[in-house]
């Protein structure tokens, strides 16, 4: 009995000691790992990269000490000139892979990126020596694109980083929107970053661009879009059916280049309604949400409103009275 009590006391002391050490380590790890948050990976900015030295695999590239060290002295220079509100973290991660590519012979592929991130990443990569990047979206006007990054000696041999699928069904009496097709694809468990542009084909269905390694999975998993049975099949990139966007040019004279003034003219709606849309988070400039009515625009900026389309600010001229005569390109 005495031996049993002694054993119970011994086990209790050991358990208490281990729990105390566990708490101590968890507390200390919070401080030890804190510097790694220099490269955060938010859920809406996740970037994964694949390389072509082996069959394509999709692995998350988490921040680590080597990544932080690689960027410690160069990140400020390489990241100069990033557009306001750009996703700096994805660009940092791409730079880490670019630096690895410079010292090796691997070709890395990013996820599908929005135009501002692509532009910022290309600008940063140009400052590195012996590294080049290819933009791959599947067709010339592609919006969402992947970057293939490699040493200048091997980048010309980069394989296609995108594949195309045809989604066929009878949508004559039940038309499906871009959101319907995207939602159906994401419902199979695929992340948004793995899907590129979606080209609608009316009553026939749509064509979508995805990462090559998920083609077989989508073919076997996607069976319905908006209550319409569908079949999926791989198609060559050359079989993609796309047309240049239809546009019309509007001319307006405005007292300022504020987003509420320009968007009001471009979308032909009242200023008060536009202000409400901004406050509701429905207005974006260059794919970034606008929160202030007084945000100033410049030539080339693209304004988009949820459910309303896009307007691009074209040429700007100053009138004799100090106002702004602007060309507004409305995408139909």
UniProtKB/TrEMBL annotation:
Record Gene3D superfamilies: 3.30.70.330, RNA-binding S4 domain
SMART domains, per the entry: S4
Protein origin, superkingdom: Eukaryota
Family annotation (PROSITE patterns): S4 (PS50889)
Keyword Ligase: no
CDD domains linked to this entry: S4
InterPro entries: Nucleotide-bd_a/b_plait_sf, PSII_S4, RqcP2_RBD, S4_RNA-bd, S4_RNA-bd_sf
Domain named RNA-binding S4: residues: 257-317
Keywords: RNA-binding
Gene Ontology molecular function: RNA binding
Name the UniProt record assigns to this protein: RNA-binding S4 domain-containing protein
Organism for this UniProt entry: Picea sitchensis (Sitka spruce)
């Amino acid at each position: 009995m005495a031996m049993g009590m002694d054993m119970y006391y011994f086990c209790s002391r050991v358990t208490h000691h281990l729990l105390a050490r566990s708490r101590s380590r968890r507390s200390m790890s919070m401080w030890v790992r804190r510097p790694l948050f220099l490269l955060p990976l938010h859920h809406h900015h996740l970037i994964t990269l694949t390389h072509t030295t082996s069959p394509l695999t999709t692995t998350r590239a988490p921040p680590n000490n080597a990544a932080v060290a690689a960027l410690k002295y160069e990140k400020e220079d390489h990241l100069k000139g990033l557009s306001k509100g750009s996703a700096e973290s994805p660009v940092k991660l791409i730079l880490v892979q670019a630096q690895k590519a410079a010292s090796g012979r691997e070709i890395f592929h990013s996820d599908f990126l929005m135009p501002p991130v692509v532009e910022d990443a290309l600008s940063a990569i140009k400052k590195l020596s012996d590294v080049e990047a290819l933009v791959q979206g599947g067709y010339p006007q592609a919006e969402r694109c992947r970057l293939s990054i490699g040493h200048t000696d091997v980048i010309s041999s980069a394989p296609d980083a995108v594949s195309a699928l045809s989604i066929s069904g009878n949508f004559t009496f039940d038309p499906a929107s871009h959101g319907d097709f995207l939602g159906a694809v994401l419902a199979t468990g695929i992340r948004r970053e793995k899907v590129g542009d979606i080209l609608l084909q009316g009553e026939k269905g749509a064509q979508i661009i995805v990462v090559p390694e998920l083609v077989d999975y989508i073919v076997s998993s996607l069976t319905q879009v908006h209550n319409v049975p569908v079949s999926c099949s791989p198609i060559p990139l050359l079989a993609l059916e796309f047309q240049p966007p239809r546009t019309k040019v509007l001319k307006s004279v405005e007292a300022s280049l504020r987003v509420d003034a320009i968007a009001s003219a471009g979308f032909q709606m009242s200023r008060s309604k536009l202000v409400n849309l901004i406050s509701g988070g429905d207005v974006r400039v260059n794919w970034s949400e606008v929160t202030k009515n007084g945000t100033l625009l410049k030539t080339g900026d693209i304004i988009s409103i949820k459910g309303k389309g896009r307007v691009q600010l074209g040429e700007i001229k100053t009138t004799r009275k100090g106002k702004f005569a602007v060309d507004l390109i409305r995408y139909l």
